[in-house]
Amino acid sequence: MMIAGATEEGVCFVEFTDRIRLEREMERLEQELGSPMAAGDHQHLAQLQRELDEYFAGRRTSFTVPLHLTGTPFQQDVWKILCEIAYGKTWSYKEQAVHMGKLPAIRAIAAANGQNKHAIVIPCHRVIGSNGSLTGYAGGLSKKEWLLKFENAGQTPELPFGDF
Fold first, then answer.
1. Predicted confidence (pLDDT) per residue in 70-118, tens digit
2. How far is CA 111 from CA 38, 81, 108, 135, in A?
3. From the candidates 121, 124, 147, 148, which is the catalytic residue?
């Protein structure tokens, strides 16, 4: 299952409900936005739902829903570069740092990946270890593995993590 939030600017949060430290992430987001979260409908959430439906049906490889990025300018730069990783492809953390022109900041870049508040939409799941290993994913390595196989297989196997 997934949970999402939006502001007038765009989707500010989309995560798996079993993400590690989800409550802390939501509290931090409320602080960053200066507003508590409240249940409700929103045009950006409706668009996100359509785009996720298309993604999981194998008909969408990137997202166009407006995003409201919170975090430091460095984190936002990291998250924006993640969107350059093509569907079905992966980069190592080192490749990501090279693309950003900030190789010495590789650990900070990896940490910023872990602070991504837009699961799947900002595809941090496409970043792997230099040796090809699946490393770090706040949604859980089983989800990361499934997402990478899904994007590489071009088929729509049953979701191992419930509805979204």
1. 999 999 999 999 999 999 999 999 999 999 999 999 999 999 999 999 9
2. 28, 14, 5, 12
3. 124
CB 127 within 8 A of CB 84: no
> Would residue 51 be called left, alpha or beta, if left means φ above 0 and alpha means ψ between -120 and 50 degrees?
alpha
Q: What residue type is assigned to position 110 of the chain?
A: A
- Spell out, as residue ranges, where the chain has pLDDT lower than 50: 163-164
Active site residue 83: no
Query: What per-residue confidence (pLDDT) applies to 10?
Result: 96
Looking at this protein, which amino acid is placed at residue 38?
Answer: A
Domain with CATH 1.10.10.10 in the chain: 73-153
Please give the CATH number for the structural domain made up of 73-153: 1.10.10.10
